[in-house]
Design brief:
By secondary structure, the chain is α/β, with parallel strands linked by helices. Helix content is 42%, strand content 14%. The longest helix has 15 residues.
């Protein structure tokens, strides 16, 4: 089973916070590019050591609207930090995120095309291996970002989120959105940043319409006992996450990672389970 699964890394933002780095909004994880680039590099290195082979550059919040005139330099820095921290054969994914809050589809701008085009082209210039349009709760904006990413000529993955309660989008709505994204040229469709315990129905729906499906759920609620405890993972968290992820894989998921509230230990546990299977 392990040889058929592509292993993504885990989160950057919550892992930075767990290590004491300031991630205050609106810059969130992008603040670390200025204040703690060595920690960003260390996190990438630890995900690589844990077994991930796709590494998402810390560009989730490096857009012009967040960083002003320094946005492109910071975007290139984020990609460079990832590239220099991982083995040469691993791949760097450039993150393209919603322009506003990833849990507030009502805030999605009416015209998002120019900004997504700008980011997609900057990530291509920074020599990313693929583009990951991730954590989109608004289908229309996700499809615009997908179009602009595909236009760069790089492989493009698109990932939708149903939010912290898994109710911003239904599994059927995600499947229909995925079909449209595939029609625009996306090469994989995913779901992310919903509680790991709620991921499976979305994976099943995606697998009914797409040949290449991925998932990276977050730690969910504290009572899920997957992560978040005092900013670090609970001892049993990685194993609990891995059990859920193996269920996604059994349903047909072939790109798997982890999202907010998890860390390198979750990826390492999943890699071990895949190796042993």
């Amino acid at each position: 089973m392990g040889s058929t699964v592509t292993l993504l890394d885990g989160p950057m933002g919550t892992e930075l916070s767990a290590r004491g780095v300031d991630t205050a909004l609106p810059l969130w994880s992008a603040r670390a590019l200025r204040d703690a680039p060595h920690v960003v590099s260390s996190i990438h290195q630890q995900y690589a050591a844990a077994g991930a082979t796709i590494h998402t550059a810390n560009t989730f919040r490096t857009k012009r609207r967040n960083l002003g005139s320094s946005w492109e330099a910071q975007t290139h820095l984020a990609v460079s930090l990832a590239r220099n921290a991982i083995p040469a054969e691993h791949r760097v994914a450039g993150s393209i995120a919603p322009l506003e809050d990833c849990y507030r589809p009502d805030l999605s701008p009416r015209d998002a095309r120019h900004e997504h085009r700008e980011m997609a082209r900057a990530l291509a210039r920074a020599s990313c291996d693929l583009l990951l349009c991730e954590t989109f709760p608004h289908v229309g904006e996700a499809l615009v970002a997908t179009e602009e990413a595909v236009a760069t000529g790089l492989p493009t993955w698109v990932s939708f989120t149903a939010g912290p309660n898994a109710d911003l989008l239904s599994p059927d709505e995600v499947a229909r959105a995925a079909e449209r994204a595939l029609g625009l040229g996306a090469t994989a469709v995913l779901v992310n940043c919903i509680p790991a315990v709620a991921v499976l129905p979305f994976v099943v729906a995606l697998c009914s319409v797409a040949p290449r499906v991925g998932a990276y759920g977050n730690a969910g609620r504290p009572h899920d006992r997957i992560g978040w405890a005092s900013g670090t993972s609970l001892p049993e968290g990685p194993a609990r996450h891995a059990e859920l992820a193996l269920g996604w894989i059994a349903a047909g998921c072939r790109i798997v990672g982890a999202c907010c509230g998890t860390g390198p230990a979750h990826i390492a546990e999943l890699r071990q389970r895949l190796t042993d299977s």
